[in-house]
Amino acid sequence: MSSPVDAFGRPLRDLRVSVTDRCNMRCTYCMPAEVFGPDYAFVPREEILTFEEIVRVVRIAAGLGVRKVRLTGGEPLLRRELPSLVRLLSAIPPLEDLALTTNGLLLADFAQELREAGLHRVTVSLDAMDDAVFRRLGGSRRGVADVLAGMEAARRCGLPVKVNCVVRRGLNEGEVLPLAEFCRSAGYTLRFIEYMDVGNHNRWQGSEVVPAAELRAVLDRRFGLVPLEPAAPGEVARRYRYADGCGEVGLIASVTEPFCRDCNRARLTADGKLVTCLFAAEGVDLRGPLRSARDDRELAEVVRGIWAGRADRYSELRGAPRPDVRPKVEMSYVGG
Asked: 0.85 cut: is pTM over it?
């Protein structure tokens, strides 16, 4: 089956699958506690896709050209029996990369089982090395040590670990060098991400974005940076190796250096909507067709049509004189 391309000629290669909209942290840029409190109405469990339904969508997407799948949330390790889903997905032959993004708090309990099930690698969100800053950003009573324990458990069982840090001015830009120092010494790959206007509740202000150019200058002054070529088409991070050869660091600059023209990602929400941009207003329902009598060929044509009609380039238009200010899908639904 031929691979679809969208309105700008971008192929579908990468699928992010949210397995739950629930999380055990309340990060200020994703699920601020004042909105996602004890009475917040999460998606009812009967509306969440089953493992069999997720596998069916991924198998269809693989037939349309998807080669990378990343499991996200919310916090994906809150989904019961997640290693069973990993085992099912790892058996889909066209997939070349099966990854997981997690806050790391539960990773120590699951790393070995995930590796044995066929997971290829893990990305851990860690926005500070200082416990007070970590708790203020993440709304968690647990500390950095819990995340580091999960990362070490993953490494011990053979799972490569990458660290993501969202940098927000006035909150954690002072953590950039401590994080870089730690990841260099520990051997973890690190990515710094510009604070983005994802969702509707994080009260995003452009003044709180620390531009990638500024971060690059800070890191270059301390360590010396040597640019690296992209590892794959559609790679979102600008990668650098440290001048002394001790590891690498990357910068993801969706705000100041948009990469829409190379974006080849789609996202599947926990309740079965296919979303074609991180900043989309809504997704297209696949749960209905999945639970009807449609066969895989019919579903493949639905997915093909959604991707072929895609014309998203929000980040390139963000600074336009009349920017798009419509509501956006919450980050906790699409997993970043």
From this structure: yes
